[in-house]
Every structure is written in C-alpha cells, then in structure tokens.
C-alpha cells in the first residue's frame, strides 16, 4: 500500500496538561502490515500517544484518523469497536478462568463481556478460540486456569484476547517486559505474524527486541518526533545518540 493511504494518520496532535505539552503537534502515519516501534526517554510522551489513540486521554487539538474514523471524537468503546486494540503493561486477564474462557469472553467485538458467558458456545466461537490459542502458543493450555500460566504466557493470553476482537490496529506497551529470552523470541515471531493484514504499534525499551521486530522506529522526545526510519537510521542519528542512546 502506498504512503498516501495509511491505516492510522495522526496530524498536528497536541495534548496539554496544565499548559505542559506532553504531545506537541505530532504527525505519525502507520501503514497496514507494519510494525512500528515508538522509543524515547521516560516522559517523552509515548504512553500519552497510545492513550490519545485509544481515547483514554482527550486531545487538546489535532486529528487521529483510523481508516475513515476520526478517533478524537469517539468514546473508548467506540474506538474498540472500529478495530483498535490496546494492551497495557499489566495483564488484565481473569486469573480464575481458563485460557479458553478468557478468550471466549473477548468474542466478538461489541458484545457485552459478561453476556458472552451466558450464551451457548457456538461452533464459530470455539473455532476462533482454538485458532487464536494456537497463534499465541497456548493450544496445549486451553483448559488451564490463567493463574497457572507463566508471566509470558499471561502476556500472550492478553494479546490473544485482543485478537479475538479482530482489531486492525494493535497497540502494545512493553510486551516483553519480564519475559524470558525464549519467550521474547516467540513474541517477536508472534508480532511479525499478527502484523500481517494489520498494523501494530509497540512501545519498547529493549533495543535488541526493537531491532528484531521494528519495520520502522519513531523516536519521541519532549512530545515531538526526534527521528524516524529504520532502526539503523535512527540509531546512527546524532540527535538520537545525544538524547537517548548515548547516556
Ligand atoms: P513516556 O511514556 O514516554 O514515558 P508519558 O506519555 O507517560 O511518557 O508522559 C509524558 C509527559 O506527560 C510526562 O512528563 C508526564 O508526567 C506527563 N503526563 C502524562 N499524563 C499526564 C496527566 N494525565 N496529567 C499530567 N501530566 C501527564
């Protein structure tokens, strides 16, 4: 797809907290099939950008276009329904339910979460749950209670819960924090796979992991883009070395 038709187009996005601009006239374009990684020092505005996209924080000015939707005018629930999924750092799975039940609850988009449990299991729900469980390396744990999973498996389950909603854009905040080396490698593979036909935006601090997943890197600093491009390009940018990688 050409750069003229990004899935996500952020233009002149600004948010002020008591006059402090956490995000300052940001322009960001993300394509389908792209894994974009947003890096930058603490306080750069990375989390705030994701909060603005998912509707958790309201923009002071500017626009966030996702396909044909203007997200700055939509509620958080409406943003989920048009296909934007956000995973926070802390897993929010149901520890006392099985992997199957956690995934089932997230299907389909727009249905009331607790209503799903009272419905009879339809074959398409079961098929979807099984397909997603396989995608997130948990087919053998379908009937395992979630609190028995490893930390990494819980993170995958949460990604699976997002996948059940069939998002076109997935946003992940430090997805490999606390994961083992082998879990990190599998997560890199997972993100590559789920970006096919979708867009993925990731906040990440681990530079080796960034290198292994990023199609393009955006470096934020003081609410603005300091550099953007391939990992090699941004890594060798003197401005980036100065504020971020050089310390
Ligand atoms: P990052 O994720 O890059 O570490 P954040 O987006 O969390 O940065 O924060 C960017 C800046 O905005 C920080 O200085 C932070 O203190 C400030 N900030 C974020 N959210 C709020 C808020 N709700 N009220 C006031 N200041 C905030």
From TrEMBL:
<feature type="domain" description="ABC transporter">
    <location>
        <begin position="8"/>
        <end position="247"/>
    </location>
</feature>
<dbReference type="InterPro" id="IPR017781">
    <property type="entry name" value="ABC_transptr_urea_ATP-bd_UrtD"/>
</dbReference>
<dbReference type="GO" id="GO:0016887">
    <property type="term" value="F:ATP hydrolysis activity"/>
</dbReference>
<dbReference type="InterPro" id="IPR032823">
    <property type="entry name" value="BCA_ABC_TP_C"/>
</dbReference>
<dbReference type="GO" id="GO:0005886">
    <property type="term" value="C:plasma membrane"/>
</dbReference>
<keyword id="KW-0813">Transport</keyword>
<dbReference type="Pfam" id="PF00005">
    <property type="entry name" value="ABC_tran"/>
</dbReference>
<dbReference type="InterPro" id="IPR003439">
    <property type="entry name" value="ABC_transporter-like_ATP-bd"/>
</dbReference>
<dbReference type="InterPro" id="IPR027417">
    <property type="entry name" value="P-loop_NTPase"/>
</dbReference>
<dbReference type="GO" id="GO:0005524">
    <property type="term" value="F:ATP binding"/>
</dbReference>
<keyword id="KW-0547">Nucleotide-binding</keyword>
<keyword id="KW-0067">ATP-binding</keyword>
<dbReference type="Pfam" id="PF12399">
    <property type="entry name" value="BCA_ABC_TP_C"/>
</dbReference>
<protein>
    <submittedName>
        <fullName>Urea ABC transporter ATP-binding protein UrtD</fullName>
    </submittedName>
</protein>
<dbReference type="InterPro" id="IPR051120">
    <property type="entry name" value="ABC_AA/LPS_Transport"/>
</dbReference>
């Amino acid at each position: 797809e050409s750069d003229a038709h990004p899935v996500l187009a952020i233009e002149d996005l600004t948010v002020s907290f008591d006059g402090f601009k956490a995000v300052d006239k940001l322009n960001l374009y993300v394509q389908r099939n792209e894994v974009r990684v947003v890096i930058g020092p603490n306080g750069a505005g990375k989390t705030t950008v994701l909060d603005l996209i998912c509707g958790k924080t309201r923009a002071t000015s500017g626009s966030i276009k996702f396909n044909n939707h203007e997200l700055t005018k939509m509620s958080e629930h409406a943003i989920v329904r048009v296909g934007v999924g956000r995973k926070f750092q802390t897993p929010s799975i149901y520890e006392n339910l099985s992997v199957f039940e956690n995934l089932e609850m997230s299907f389909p988009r727009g249905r009331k979460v607790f209503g799903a449990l009272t419905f009879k299991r339809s074959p398409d729900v079961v098929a979807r749950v099984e397909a997603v469980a396989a995608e997130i390396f948990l087919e053998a744990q379908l009937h395992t209670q979630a609190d028995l999973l490893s930390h990494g498996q819980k993170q995958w389950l949460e990604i699976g819960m997002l996948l059940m909603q069939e998002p076109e854009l997935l946003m992940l905040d430090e997805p490999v924090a606390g994961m083992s080396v082998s879990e990190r490698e599998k997560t890199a593979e997972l993100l590559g796979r789920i970006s096919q036909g979708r867009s993925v935006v990731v906040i990440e601090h681990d530079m080796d992991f960034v290198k292994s997943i990023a199609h393009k890197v955006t470096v934020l600093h003081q609410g603005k883009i300091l550099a953007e491009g391939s990992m090699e390009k941004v890594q060798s940018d003197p401005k980036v070395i100065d504020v971020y990688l050089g310390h």
